[in-house]
From TrEMBL:
Name used for this protein in its record: CD8B protein
SMART domains, A to Z: IG (SM00409)
Cellular compartments annotated: Membrane
SUPFAM superfamilies: Immunoglobulin
Matching Pfam families: V-set
Length: 192
């Protein structure tokens, strides 16, 4: 099966890139392995796609219909870091990319990097600074502070905690389906 593991540190967590540009995803291993697999999960197509396996010797094995000029893996000098370079970015490259190692008949996945490709990058929002006030600041004594209903009031945190619990419960079926999809992919890879 698949499982995420602390043996793999993947950065960055999110990338927003422009069409026809290039990007890089880094995967650092806690210990040396025979090599690293790279996969892409497509939310739109609801599938995992095997992209490339890079061995510790530097040999690359590509998945079916994968453009070898588009996906290139660079290996670090100590065989514990690998970076996936993706060039000629297109909207079809959108998805979550995972580095992975094989250990005890399991594929251990990194934390994932979400890549979004857009035609035009959004402009950064202008931040406006509040005008400086010369009014003296009010200081609250402990008694005054405790009498005010602030962020610690049960009227605030009880509904907030309930909504977080409902949100977490709604994620359980999605996580279960994701696990089944990853297991199916692992079985398919090992049948080949």
């Amino acid at each position: 099966g698949f499982c995420t593991n602390l043996l793999l540190l993947q950065t960055p967590e999110n990338i927003l890139a422009q069409t026809n540009s290039k990007t890089e995803i880094l995967c650092e291993l806690k210990k040396e392995h025979a090599g690293v697999y790279w996969y892409r999960w497509s939310q739109e197509r609801q599938n995992f796609k095997f992209l490339v396996f890079s061995s510790s010797l530097g040999k690359a094995t590509y998945g079916t219909n994968i453009n070898q000029d588009k996906f290139i893996v660079h290996r670090g000098s100590y065989h514990t870091s690998y970076s996936l370079h993706i060039s000629h970015l297109h909207v079809s490259d959108n998805g979550t990319y995972y580095c992975s190692v094989s250990q005890s008949s399991q594929l251990l996945l990194g934390s994932g990097t979400h890549l979004g490709v857009v035609d035009v990058l959004p402009l950064p929002q202008k931040t406006t600074q509040a005008p400086f006030s010369k009014k003296p600041m009010q200081c609250l004594t402990k008694r005054k502070a405790s009498s005010k209903k602030g962020a610690c009031s049960p009227l605030v945190w009880v509904p907030l905690a309930a909504s977080v619990l409902v949100l977490l419960m709604s994620l359980v079926p999605t996580a279960h389906r994701f696990y089944r999809l990853r297991r199916r992919l692992w079985l398919r890879i090992h049948r080949q």
